[in-house]
Amino acid sequence: MTTSDAQERARANRRETSGPRREELIAAAAACFDDLGYPATTVELIAARARTSRPTFYAYLRSKDEAFLAVAEQVCAELESAQQLDGIESLPPAAVLRMTTRAFAEAIFANGSIVAMIDSRAAVDAEVDALWSTLRRRLVRRFTNYLSGLDPAAIDPCAPPQRLVSMLIDSIVHGAARLGHASGEDRERFINDQIRLTERAVGIAADARPEP
């Protein structure tokens, strides 16, 4: 094995192992993508943001694309986790819809412009598309199963559950993603509007809706 081969093997091994340095680079990449956008972000800028060098970057990540994929993986995990709220099984449907809508929108807000970027990159990057599509399928399946399990007397959905859920998720993702750097007032207005839209689309009776 040549020196070059040995160095590449060492780099590959480090890339396969999660650690503080790699996490620092991923955090720096997320900040660069959010601040500068995808095209303007470079490996050099990510390394500088992480207060390290270009060679160190390549010791843990193969490219800017791989860095973005790592960021997207973290963001998708956060979005999925936002829909896994504890103690909601015994709550009325209106309260559950309100809580999950708010939690999901706030998770998108917390990632600035990254969610919009993931949605855009999914059109041109197969790995990002696979990740994004998998998350969307899981969210649709979970929400559809929840609605399908409710007492038909409690809701009156305006469309078949799976199609309705898909539309509502798109509405939250695309709407909230545009407000990644908006004011708190604008974000709160969007959440409340989205909650009202969801309640009406699902068919929650007006007298069953919680007070704003």
UniProtKB/TrEMBL annotation:
<keyword id="KW-0804">Transcription</keyword>
<keyword id="KW-0805">Transcription regulation</keyword>
<dbReference type="InterPro" id="IPR009057">
    <property type="entry name" value="Homeodomain-like_sf"/>
</dbReference>
<dbReference type="InterPro" id="IPR001647">
    <property type="entry name" value="HTH_TetR"/>
</dbReference>
<dbReference type="Pfam" id="PF00440">
    <property type="entry name" value="TetR_N"/>
</dbReference>
<protein>
    <submittedName>
        <fullName>TetR/AcrR family transcriptional regulator</fullName>
    </submittedName>
</protein>
<feature type="domain" description="HTH tetR-type">
    <location>
        <begin position="19"/>
        <end position="79"/>
    </location>
</feature>
<feature type="DNA-binding region" description="H-T-H motif">
    <location>
        <begin position="42"/>
        <end position="61"/>
    </location>
</feature>
<keyword id="KW-0238">DNA-binding</keyword>
<dbReference type="InterPro" id="IPR050109">
    <property type="entry name" value="HTH-type_TetR-like_transc_reg"/>
</dbReference>
<feature type="region of interest" description="Disordered">
    <location>
        <begin position="1"/>
        <end position="20"/>
    </location>
</feature>
